[in-house]
Amino acid sequence: MAAVTTGPARPARPAARRLARTLALNLAAVAAGLAGWALLAGTGLQGLPGPAEVAGRAGELLADGTLLDDTLASLRRVLTGFALGTLTAVPVGFLMGWYPTARALLEPYVQFFRTIPPLALIPLAIVLMGIGEVPKVFVIFLAAFLSSVVAAFQGVVDVDVTLVDAARVLGAGDRAIFLRVVIPAAAPFILVGMRIGLGSAWGTLVAAELIAAQEGLGFRMQQAQLYYDLPTIFVGLITIGVLGLAMDRLLQLAERRLTRWQERR
Amino acid sequence: MSTAQSNPTDPTSTTSSTSSTSKLSFRAVGRTYPVGDGLFTALGNVSLDIADGEFVTVVGPSGCGKSTLLGMAAGLVEPTSGRVLLDGVPVTGPGPDRGVIFQQYALFPWLTVRRNVEFGLRLAAVPAAERRRRAQYAIDLVGLTDFADALPKTLSGGMRQRCAIARAYAVDPQVLLMDEPFGALDALTRVQLQNQLLDTWSRERRTVLFITHDVDEAVYLARRVVVMAARPGRIDRIVDVDLPYPRTEEIRLSADFGRIRNEVWHAVYHQPPATPATRAT
After folding, report:
1. What is the CATH number of the domain that holds B142?
2. What ipTM was estimated for this complex?
3. Where are the transmembrane segments (chain A) (predicted)?
4. Which of A213, B14, B46, B145 has its CA 20 to 30 A from that of B164?
5. Do the Cβ atoms of A171 and B153 come within 8 Å?
6. Phi, psi values for residue A134, rounded to 5°
7. Domains of chain A
8. What does the pLDDT profile of chain A (265 residues) look like in tens digits?
9. Torsions phi, psi of A101, nearest 5?
């Protein structure tokens, strides 16, 4: 048989150039944003601090260790809640997608809780779980779980039945099908769900830190609000934004690595 | 092996010497589906014996239940009546003793060719060295040696199907069940793969049940062609193909081949009783 060898000859240079171009545009956008901010602050708008002032405050907060402590405290909460949420979402999504009985049992709860903003549960969480770390992490967990469980469920429902059949005729039982077929096949969905879940986790963080926190970026910003300390609020906002962005990029990177096999793109 | 060959109720009146060692037996199998408040009979009371090492093709119009028949042998479709025997033992579910090749290839797109071929061996917990050796043998067998580390998305349709065949062979099944495996390929590739399949089969002899809607393909590959009819799905007749193996281009173009092909063609396209309106798919 004639094998026409079509090697994966991919043009490397244009891709690299496109990446450089994208990066340059990203940086230009950031620079323009900073310039606009500085300009706006220069007009004396409502005591708005300029970039320099905020950078100065960030330096102070870094120097006395507050920023680092706050960041670590917040990061720990977000990561714990997010990890617990997505780790639970995958098996629950699988159960819902795989077994009609489980779906019928779980779906009302998932849909019900999805309509309640996690923030609205904070008063209840305080009453039931006190004012320690548990209610904060719980609220973040719930936010991350609810956003990713639906994606995981959809991913499982969308798994090609022929692939499942192919695995079964090769001797796979339910466990092997779950680990070796459903999880990889649903990975693109699950990763998208994780990205959405991560967004929700950060989004819930500040509110969660309303619950009598002693440290954390959200707590620090609320303190600053009391003293009309705008630079500190900005430092907190920017830290949250940068951390969220960095984590999203990491997930994107993982997504690209884990779903390289997909035919599209 | 299984006690002689016993199927007195075989409705397939026509011909055929089922040898005494029947590998795969369909015993009065049927399959109905509830439709509205009635029952739709996809397959009604079909009996068929396939000898060890025999290559049997099944051809028929769409809706004749040929894929249902294969699904039952695979253990993926449960018969509503009758049963399927493998070496005299009833089939109760899918298992690695019966390899299945699907029309849509059904390769795991996130695994390379090698990992796809190793899939069944990993499930069977075959030790690494042995696994590697058997996978390599299967990959070489179908001529994908140079593409062992490629992902399915980089392969052509024909190569994907060869990978699927290697994957089925790797677990060393006794029976190969092929469900229109070359149906999605262009005519040229199809002929190449037919030759290659026969070549593979002659070196690693297995019992093969091969579903197709292509009359030429059915005759070229098989020792017996089972012609099915629809509504209800049933065996219309069985045509013996007394042409020698290995099958070559000369055979494909010979008058004998033409005669048998015409016979099968008429059986498929002129089924007077049930399906006047069925046309080729």
Report:
1. 3.40.50.300
2. 0.82
3. 23-40, 78-100, 112-131, 137-157, 177-198, 226-247
4. B46
5. no
6. -55, -50
7. 49-258 (1.10.3720.10)
8. 444 444 455 555 678 888 899 999 999 999 999 999 998 888 877 778 888 889 999 999 999 988 999 999 999 999 999 999 989 998 898 889 888 899 999 989 888 888 888 778 888 888 888 878 888 899 899 989 988 898 889 999 999 999 999 999 999 988 899 899 998 999 888 888 888 888 888 888 888 887 777 888 988 998 898 898 899 999 999 999 999 889 888 988 888 888 888 876 5
9. -65, -50
